[in-house]
Fold this sequence. Notes:
The protein is of the alpha/beta class. It has helices at residues 23-32, 37-53, 56-68, 74-123, 126-131, 134-176, 178-186, 188-223, 226-234, 238-291, 296-306, 310-317, 319-337, 371-374, 418-423, 448-453, 469-474, 482-491, 495-500, 518-532, 548-562, 597-603, 606-610, and strands at 359-366, 395-402, 407-411, 433-438, 441-442, 455-458, 536-540, 566-570, 582-587, 590-595.
Amino acid sequence: MRMGPHHLIPRDADAVKGVRLSRGTIDRVWRFARPYRRAILWFLVCIVASALVALVPPLVFRSILDRAIPRHDRGLIKALAAVAVGAAFVDAGLAVAQRWLSSHIGEGLIYTLRVALFDKVQQMPIAFFTRTQTGALMSRLNNDVVGAQNAVTNTLGSAVSNVIVLVTTLVAMFALEWRLTLLALVVLPVFIVPAKRVGRRLQTLTREQMVMNAEMNTQMTERFNVAGALLVKLFGRHRAEVDAFSSRAGRVRDAGVRNALYGRLFFVALGVVGALGAVAIYGVGASYVVDGAITSGTLVALASFATRIYQPLTGLTNARVDLMTAMVSFDRVFEVIDAPVAIADRPGAVALVEPKGQVEFRNVGFRYPPAAAVSIRSLEAPGTEFSGDPDVDVLTDVNLTVPAGATVAFVGASGAGKSTLLSLVPRLYDATTGTVAIDGIDVRDLTLDSLRAAIGVVSQDPHLFHESIIDNLRYARADATDAEVEAACRAARIHDTIADLPEGYRTIVGERGYRLSGGEKQRLAIARLLLKAPAIVILDEATSHLDSENEHLVQTALATALADRTSIVIAHRLSTITAADQILVMEQGRIVERGTHAELLALEGRYAQMW
Ligand code: ADP
C-alpha cells in the first residue's frame, strides 16, 4: 500500500467548510474521466484482486501449522509454500498494474484538464487578461490540475482501497474467530485519539513551513532581479541581506526537522498499535488454543491479519475531509473551464470571404464591461476584486463609414477613446450599443477567425514571442515560404538589419532574447502584417519615440503596408496624416470634427488649434 504521512494528516477542516460534494462537481469529474472509464474499472478490479490475494499467505501458514505439520506431510508443505510464493508474485504483479493504471488515469486527467483550461483561457476576451493575475491563472494550470488528479488517484484511490482491504480482512478475521477480532479492534482508539492530535499539530507545522518557505522565496525573487540587486548594492546592504536570509533559511530548516519528527511519530505509533494488537491476540488467543477452542494456525493467521487493519482504519478516519479538500481543486479548475466566454461565435455566424474592407460604425456607444461579466473573482488580484466597475460612457454616438481602401486618422487627447473605438473592430470588445460592421455585415455575425484574418493591427509596442525571428514572422502565416518572408521583410525595410545579425532569421527575440530597437520591432511587426495581408489595417502610430532614421524607415515601410488597404490610424503627430482621406477629431468619446486636413484647417476649430 502506498501511503505517505500526508494521508494521516487531518486536512484543514476550515478550508473545506461549505464545500459540498455537489452532484454537479461529481458529474463533471465523471465527464472528464470519460476516456479513462475502462482504466478505472480495471483499477478497481486490481484493488479487489490484490486485497483477496493478500488473504492467501496467512491462510496458507494456518494450513501449514494445522494440517501439514501434525500429519508430517512434506508434500503438502511444499505445495502450500508454492501457493504462498505464487500469491507473492501475483500480488507484486497486481501492485505494478495498479500503479500503471493509476498513473495512466492520473496523468491522463492532468492532460485533459490542462488542455481544456488552455483552450478556454485562449478564448477569454481581452478584458479577462487585463484583470486577471497571471500567477493565479498559472497556478490553476499547474497546482490545481495536479491537485485534482491527486484527488482521483491518491485520495479516492486509497480510500477505495482502504475500504476493500478493511472489509475483506475483517470478514476473514471474523470468520476465523470473532472474539479475538473484536479484541484487535479494541486497541484502536488508544491510537486514533492521540493520532488526531499529532495530526493537527503536523498540519499547523506544515502550514507554518509553507509560510516560511514563501518568505524565503520572496526575498530571493525580489533580490535576484536587476532592480533589486541594484538597490542592495547601492545601499551597501549585502551583509544585512545575508543575515536576514540566513535567519529565514534557518527557520525553514528547523521547521523541516520538527515536521519530520512529527511525521515519523505517526508510523512509530502505528507500529506500536500493531505490536499491541499482536500481543493482545497472542496473549488472549493462546489460552483459547490451550482450551482447544481454536488451533494455533488460526491464531497465527489472525495475528497476521490484524496488522493489516490499522493503517486503512487510520486512513479512513480522515477520508471525508481529505476528499473535500481534494475536490476543492476540481472546483477551482472547473470554475475556469465553465466560465462563460463573453465574446464568441454566434450560432450561425458567417465567414467573411474576400473582404473588401469597408468599415462602418453606426451609433456606437461603449462602456467597459463590469468585471463580473468578463472575469473570474478568484483570479483577480487581491484588493481589486471586482472593484471600480466603470459606469461611464467611454464612447457615445460614434458614426463613421470608412470606404474600402481609404485611410482615416483619429486624433485627440489621450483618453479620448481612440484605442477603445478601434478595439471594437476586431471584437476585442463588443459595442455596448450600436453596430460595428465590415462590408455591411455586423462584426458579431461574422466568425471570429475570418474577422480577425481580415484585420491587421500594429500597436505602439509590438509584442514578439521568445522565438526566432522567422517563427515570429510565420505566426502570421505558418505556410509562408522563405522567399515570401524575405520579400515581406524587404518591403518592411527590415531585411538588411536581420541579415546582419550573426544568426540572421534564426535569432531568438522577445523579452529575454535579442533586444531589437523600437523601430526595428515596428518594422518586424509591419513585415508580419504584410505576410498576413489583411484587408484592414489598424495602426497605433509610434513614430513619436523613434529616432529620425528609424522613423524614416518605418514611414517608408508603412507606406508599402497601407497601400491598397483600408487603414485606420491613431495619429500622435499631425504631420504624418495630412494626406489622410479623412481626419476625425475625438473628444471624450465623441467625434467632434471631421474632414480632410485642408477642410479642418479652414474650420478653425480644435484641429486647427492642435495644428
Ligand atoms: P485614447 O486611445 O484616446 O488615449 P482610450 O480608448 O485608451 O483613449 O481610453 C478611453 C477611456 O477609457 C479612458 O478614460 C480610459 O481610462 C478608459 N479605459 C481604457 N481602457 C480601459 C479598460 N481596460 N477598462 C476600463 N476603462 C478603460
